Amino acid sequence: MVEEEGFRRYIAHIILWIGIAIVAFPVYLAIIASSQDNAVIANGQMSLLPGGHFFETYYQTIFVGTSGSTREPVGNMMLNSLVMALLIAIGKIAISIISAYAIVYFRFPFRMAIFWLIFITLMLPVEVRIYPTYKIVADLHMLDSYAGLSLPLIASATATLLFRQFFMTVPDELLEASRIDGAGPFRFFWDTLLPLSRTNMAALFVILFILGWNQYLWPLLITTRDDMQTIQIGIRKMITTTDALTEWPIVMATAVLAMLPPVFVVVVMQKLFVRGLVETEK
Amino acid sequence: MQKQAIFQSKLLPYALVAPQLAIVLVFFYWPALQAMIQSFLLQDAFGLSTSFVWFENYIDLFKEPAYFEAILRTFFFSFAIAVSSLSFALLLAVMADKPLRGSMLYRTLLIWPYAVAPPVVGVLWIFMLHPSLGVLSRYLRALGVDWNPLLDGDQAAALIILAAAWKQISYNFLFFLAGLQSIPKSVLEAAAIDGARPMRRFWTVTFPLLSPTIFFLLVVNIVYAFFDTFGIIDTMTRGGPGKSTETLVYKVYTDGLLGGNLGSSAAQSVILMIMVIVLTGIQFRFVERKVTY
Q: Which of A93, A207, A216 to mutate to test binding with chain B, by most B CBs within 10 Å of its CB?
């Protein structure tokens, strides 16, 4: 190994800890703020140490919500976010894996045309087709519904591409062997291909869950009813930056609750997360 | 590339692609087509009649100084976010790549902000730097800075850039670390034997070998700054004060929302589509190159 004298190592440790502090400070502040009294925060007198209102604030946030205009309990928003995230992640994986299976293991007219049709959706993020998509969802009477929140986002070029690449590396002998055993396309998919894809599916699930949970623009457009809003939308409705009425401890508690599930997933399933991130970007 | 061993079936493959195809056609291609058609139409004030106006919406758009400013602003934001986030992440990755005790812990403590949603990033940063109650604003004012991002456009822009760059550090860090770890140690050892000091080794060996990663991340960061900053902007400044933090995506959103000009909003969407196609094109060409050499 190249020389690394002690002094340089100390510098590296120090720089990394500074980096961690910069990255963590805004979140530390949020946790602290969620345990303090609103009047103190509003005065700009917030202390950098925890206050005594921690449980009280979280109880009110989760079960009651703010006392102002949006009286929706954040617990309900989290449930909406969870349902949406799961529908998006599972939906994307399910429809992508079967499309990839068709494209790799069958020959049929328009096979490549269909593949390209799916592939090109990479270039059509929701931001470039906001209002026409909104109109279609409205025409289909899917505003304020879980179907409206998830269905339009379920197509996935990345997932289809990933499964296609993976299936191409599966040896042909496996198919021949299971055919000798009398397996048809369903049995082969279910008994052979699906178990082999487990790690890929898990890595993809981690990334797609975070992506789904963090959706913002789309739910913002199509949810009007308070009981259908996701936590990301709820938090925006709570802050009125020019208004002194913002209940900051509750806003910060909501921010913490909004971060909790995806950050937990990243930290606990770090290996799968890194794998998923690197593979979906290829 | 094609599989040799396949199944024979006429209908099954269509049934398998049908769900994805249906979603893609209904929610992607149909709206995209609608946007394109709409961008050539002009609706009268009451929405009663529409007429085909060729490129009038586009021409009007480019005559509008606000649109031109939004383009420049978006590019400036992208550049500032990419450069600041990439350089800081590279510094951290170079440090974390050294054989240090606890390097796995460092990685864990640096990658989690990837999971924080853009609107939450906005809320965290506006709270920290809020003019009247922000904890850091106190220190800024003590330093003599007249800090009020809710009134001062340049300060608001700086706030957006900082917050957006903050969120992207973890992503860039992760890819830089992977890039650094794939550089063969023997090359660095050879440079060390030749007497190159660590700083020189970094600039003459590591940095050039890292250039594919840097280029890839540059494109990803620009795409991020174009699209994913929407949530940050919407919770922090809502495009203001004035229009000083209005990016292209935010403008499409507000122009269409105010129920106003559908034709103009559609034309803006189509221009964004072209930009995405160019950016993705660049990204894929690069990925292909990486595969072949």
A: A216
**B233 close to B239: Cβ distance less than 8 angstroms:** yes
User: Residue A30 contacts by C-beta under 8 Å, 6 or more apart in sequence?
Assistant: A252, A255, A256, B124, B127
In the 3-class helix/strand/coil scheme, how is chain A assigned residue by residue?
CCCCCHHHHHHHHHHHHHHHHHHHHHHHHHHHHCCCCHHHHHCCCCCCCCCCCHHHHHHHHHHCCCCCCCCCCHHHHHHHHHHHHHHHHHHHHHHHHHHHHHHHHECCCCHHHHHHHHHHHHHCCHHHHHHHHHHHHHHCCCCCCHHHHHHHHCCCHHHHHHHHHHHHHCCHHHHHHHHHCCCCHHHHHHHHHHHHCHHHHHHHHHHHHHHHHCCCHHHHHHCCCHHHCCHHHHHHHHCCCCCCCCCHHHHHHHHHHHHHHHHHHHHHCHHHHHHHHHHHCC
C-alpha dihedral, B56 to B58 to B63 to B68, nearest 10°: 170
Residue B293 has pLDDT above 60, yes or no: no
Q: Using 50, 70 and 90 to split pLDDT, how confident is the model at A1? A: very low
| Per-residue pLDDT tens over the stretch B52-97 | 778 888 888 888 888 888 899 999 999 999 999 999 999 999 888 8
Q: Are B177 and B110 in contact (CB under 8 A)?
A: no
Angle of CA points A142, A146, A152, to nearest 5°: 65
Residues from chain A that touch B3, judged by Cβ atoms under 8 A, are 104-105, 167-168, 172
What would the two tokens of residue A201 be? Answer: 């599916």
Residue of B nearest to A93 (CA): B20
Work out the angle at residue A141's Cα, subtended by the Cα atoms of residues A138 and B24, and round it to the nearest 5 degrees.
65
Predicted complex ipTM? 0.88
